Amino acid sequence: MNASKEDPRARAKVLREQIAHHRRTYYVDDAPEISDAEYDALERELRAIEAEHPELVTPDSSSLRVGGEPSDAFVNVRHRTPLLSLDNAYSEDDLRAWDDRLTRAVGRSVDRYVVEPKIDGLSIALWYREGLLERAVTRGDGIVGEDVTANVRTIRSIPDRLLRPAPFVEARGEIFMPRASFQALNEARRSSGEPPFANPRNAAAGSLRLLDSGMTASRKLDGFFYVLAEIEGEDPPYTHVEGLARLEALGFRVNPLNAICRSFDDVMAGIDAIRGLRDQLEYEIDGAVVKADDLDLQRHAGSTSKFPRWAVAYKYPPEQAQTRVLHIVVQVGRTGALTPVAELAPVALAGTTVSRATLHNEDDVARKDVRVGDTVVIEKAGEIIPQVMRVVTERRAKGAKRFSMPKVCPVCGSQAVREEGEVVTRCTGVSCPAKRREALLHFASRPGMDIQGLGDALVDQLLGKELVHDVADVYGLDAGALGDLPRMGKKSAENVVGEIEASKVRLLHRLLFALGIRHVGERAARVLASSVGSVDALEKAPQSSLEAIPEIGPKTAAAVRMFFDQPRNRELIRRLAQAGVRTEAAEEELAPIRPPDSAFAGKTVVLTGTLPDLSRDEAKARIEALGGRVSGTVSKKTDFLIAGDEPGSKLDKAVKLGVRVVGPEEFARMTAATIPDRA
Fold first, then answer.
1. Which of 276, 381, 458, 656 could pair with 318 in a Cys bridge, judged by C-beta atoms 3.0 to 4.6 Å apart?
2. Of the residues 65, 86, 115, which one is the last residue of a structural domain?
């Protein structure tokens, strides 16, 4: 008889012990004893037992790592002690100046240092109580971070249960995305028409803050830990190295390249040694971290408001190469954004052969004046996708022509439009093949048509088998076709078909949002449904009538008009209606909508730069859903500037005008509020 059926409690206990053992041998000891398939079989067996006997689920069960229901927001958590960032050094002189300052601060020279790889990831603090993982908190602003425990549980190298329990333990480390995972993720995004992530850090940050922990699990994040911040029930360590050894004994993964150095010359040699291994590592690094080893000296040195005085990050210079631009092609991303990309003569850079480099947008090409045939300098400073830094103009051939953005989408031929105040040109076709995957996922999303089961994996299969080409095709799927797909099965197929059928009667505002009309977020969709009453009326409404609706500005009105002016989009609506999808507002939708109670209600907001886990459209939709209005230009009337990575001149103007600037972490907290759902 099967052991799990004979004694499920005992079998579950054995499985948990085996899984914990094999996770340690694989991720911490680098000495796996079984294959991945055998390990996966252990986890599947445990999940099966716990599904049949829910009372056997424990806080450290691996079944909790695969991701459950998506979370609506992340809770803010105050760090027990500030989680500070590091000051930077860019040369040996900078590093000597740091060492001199430290010596003056503590009144004696440092006799032992530790040099560690500076991983290009994001900081995390883990709290364990009685040996069990209690909470995982991002750095945030160093004082307050976000609780991402559910997502951190999906990272297999992070223990749910410590090898040696203690009343309380806090470990701090770095979460990162390995090169192989990053490359696989970007390949998947390219194949589905989505823009690739620029670097592993952005990918890791976005993955750790996904609302669906199942998606986080699929990203295969990893981590190293570098400080035992707190431990109760035993004496604290005396040195940083002793703290690292205790972390390992507790079950944490510690970087094997960490090195003890007894002189400043040894420190420089250690930095150079790590740099020599840079291209061979499974993860990205952008420098080395130098720390004083003596913890009593660290406490004596103290910190500034931003940085500890006893540690510094030595940043490696960016790696560059020269090559020639063979072509400039235009890619179409998941939101319809047209991105120019330089195809290059292959050149070796940072351990890889580079043949493509992003040019970001039309303005970037014009500013750098990149032309086909030009010799260019490309750089890979923490960027997996290299970028063109400058043109070697003295080597330009006569007659080289300037680049101009196409007026139509190079994939589907729909009109390509660049709106005033924006740097991105976008395809306006709703059925564009390059946008198809994201359009399907957006259509099926919870605020859209809420089709449970129609997620990433199934959408990929449907597109791969050419069972659907646009959102209207979803309503032609049947259980027979779905049941023939890998990993579906009869019951799963029937459930998905049931969800598709149920979505036909969703309220009108859900359909308007699900269609992915530019500038029509959840809030605008509700306003349009309440004011116009039907898709047919919306299709016929002149732009001036739409602009007269409260909360619908000129950009949104123009976007709605442009959407319905496209013959392909009108045909899509016809097919949805023929399939039985509701296209008229229900009675409860026609009631006036109360303005939302949020920080953005009635405010004018401008976006600049790149947010780690949101596209520009997604950020705009969140702001509009909370009653805000997104503008393309900064003025005295602007209430907030949301500034992500690589902000443009809008940031300078906002600072000059005294406009409040909001970073990614604060923006995430401000948009955590939701609108009550009347559907």
1. 381
2. 65
